[in-house]
Predict the 3D structure of the following.
Amino acid sequence: MNTKNLTQPKQDIVLTGDRTTGKLHLGHYVGSLKSRVRLQHQYETYIMLADVQALTTHFNNPGLLAESVRQVALDYLSVGIDPEHATIFVQSMIPEIAELTCIYSMFVTVSSLRHNPTVKHEAQERGYEDLYYGFLGYPVSQTADITFCKATLVPAGEDQIPHIEQARRIVRRFNELYAPVLVEPQILVGERLEGLDGGSKMSKSLGNAICLDASPEDVRTQIRRAKTDPARIHKTDPGHPEVCTIYGYHCIFRKEDSGNIRERCQQGSIGCAACKAKVTEAIEEVLEPIRERRELYRHRTRDIDDILMTGTARARKAARQTMGEVREAMGIDYFTGPSAD
Ligand code: ATP
Ligand code: MG
């Protein structure tokens, strides 16, 4: 696995993004948004509203995309992504991504996609049997997202590890087949946040998420209802923190005190309600500044559109450049390359 820490030299290019399938949540924050905010000041950073990838599972509801594009953009601005530093763009408005996807798909085998553990898991979770072509191939499209701007670093959740591995293989294959113009990316893996139901990762589509725009009241209620260790009925019952979703939240949002919480839970000297109250407070500390920034942008729809149009134009420039190099590498630059005149 290729992971990278932040002490690397400065010439990295960062790309990452989110499917426009609804509002972002705390899982996105700990898994990727937090590191993007930091990285944008160090590296050239591209952040993508992945509307085409959203279609892989929501092709029958394109209305959701139009709504979510602005919603996710607002989430970005609220967490502190700064359009002066990061290029925020819309995936479907970069046609070169579709072109690259098409080219890469010529030399990616169906079985390599079928064996991708994240694709397998998501297909199972969604009850897919006969897989849609676009869904099965979304790691190829992700490779196009990453390579159009020659990104070297992808801050993302651990579910993305197989996709980045696949992207690296595609890049190597392309470079071997034609000419070494593409760059192998590395992943910067963020923490994984479990969903409130304790059954799987926090996810927009599974209804087990705390959204970044949740009110203090919503957060309190959601945490109060979150699943804990089923063996604990009375406050003094000894607990098993390793099976408790809330303990997992302590490890992420209150790391310094998590050892203490672990012991007290095991001894039965702290009840679930008190334990949840501490987590709620720590989550509030994360969400409060996000809410404040959201207020600044909430009604500035025009400004948000401008940010997206400017970012998309900037991304398109990089995409055209790479596409030119790809065509040249493959010798399909018929009217501008050596075979023209
Ligand atoms: P969907 O259910 O529509 O697939 P999602 O909630 O899984 O949505 P994505 O847009 O697929 O979100 O993921 C965007 C990024 O956020 C990826 O880098 C992914 O790894 C990360 N991410 C999503 N959920 C979590 C989570 N619960 N914990 C950590 N990282 C996460
Ligand atoms: Mg997902």
Q: What stands out?
A: The CA atoms of residues 79 and 289 lie 8 Å apart. The radius of gyration is 22 Å.
